Amino acid sequence: MSLFSATSAWATEEHKMFAEMASRFMADELVPNIERWNDNGVVNREFWRKAGDMGLMAGAIPEEYGGVGGDIGFDAITMYAQTSHGDAGWGYGIQSIVTHYITAYGSDEQKQKWLPKLASGEMVGALAMTEPGAGSDVQSIRTTAEKDGNCYRLNGSKIFITNGQSADLILVAAKTDKSEGSKGVSLVAVETDGAEGFRKGRNLKKLGMKGNDTAELFFEDVKVPMTNLIGPEEGQGFYQMMKQLPWERLTIAIIALGSIDYAIAETVKYTQERKAFGQRVMDFQNTRFKLAECKTKAEILRSFVSDCIAKLEAGTLDAATASMAKYWGSEAQNEVMHECLQLFGGYGFMMEYPIARLYTDARVQMIYGGTNEIMKELIARSLDT
């Protein structure tokens, strides 16, 4: 299993060596803990620090800020290594997105302060956009950040926040100008340690992705230094989010590919060992045809994802293409999980088998990062010009 396709022009020998190291790390440090993390509803901080020690979160962070100074392909490799080993709990995808916001828009002081800690695992990042009454419609955000001397006073709540219980640094989308729509939105960084008025709600009980701590967050007159504004001026939050969304949506396609590869490998192994009516389940034509369909979807997605990574590196990945990757990848993921679980028969319905977890983990992929219905609308707009 590999993220690289035959046409992965972006992949260097350094990427391939990094991928081998990441795969070994996941096999040794991640796989033995997946069940425990799912039971506890959180990935322990020791794993974050171990991943940091290995440089798995530093690939695309500039060297002067504690990183390796590589490209975004290194982040993609880490994400693929995680999911191709059967895990959806570790919230590295969001950690990567947070680091790219800070790298792209943060001041030098902010980069010096936060990027080394995000790279090392000393800090866990979260992105707080979604509210109880505002999902993909950013203009409807009600959380406010009002000036008070040299600080902002943050008020509001956010929901469905990945890494919500663990987060030390949260990028919060808030209205700095309530009279404006999207032009009044800014991103403000909240350091949670000692932040008075900040409260984490309970760890939300979810259908899948049980190993990830997903929470509601509350801000009641939380004082945040004005130097924690992301970007040189207020009102840039919507623009910043739109510029970063292609990477967020591509991460969902990468997660889909890793999960698909793992599901197919597990299903092939099971059907080769399981017997029915005197022969292996793999020997039935239906099994072989279903797996052939799944493998074909995986290879199509692999080529598409690889092309998108190359385009993102070149600065040419547009919103419509990223939306296609997110939409098609997550749809393919759910289709493959459905077919693979069916081939496990009754055992596929038992949580002791990874395919059951993979099946439930897959469903949210068609919702977060913008629902697939919104993805189709964005794609359609690119045609109607």
List the helices and strands and how they pair.
Layout lengths: L12 H18 L3 H7 L4 H9 L18 H12 L8 H14 L2 H13 L4 E4 L15 E5 L2 E12 L6 E7 L9 E7 L6 E6 L10 E12 L11 H37 L1 E2 L2 E2 L4 H30 L4 H25 L10 H9 L9 H12 L2
Parallel strand pairs: 1-4
Antiparallel strand pairs: 2-3, 3-7, 4-5, 6-7, 8-9
CATH class of the largest domain: Mainly Alpha
Full CATH superfamily name of the largest domain: Butyryl-CoA Dehydrogenase, subunit A, domain 3
In terms of quaternary structure, the protein is single chain
Distance between the termini: 40 Å
Shape category: globular
Largest sheet: 4 strands, antiparallel
Structural class: alpha+beta
What is the number of beta strands? 9
Helical content, roughly?
A: 40-55%
CATH topology of the largest domain: Butyryl-CoA Dehydrogenase, subunit A, domain 3
> Radius of gyration, Cα only, in angstroms?
21 Å
Overall domain count = 3
Low-confidence spans: none
Please tell me the overall pLDDT.
96
The CATH architecture of the largest domain can be given as: Up-down Bundle
Q: Beta-strand percentage?
A: 5-15%
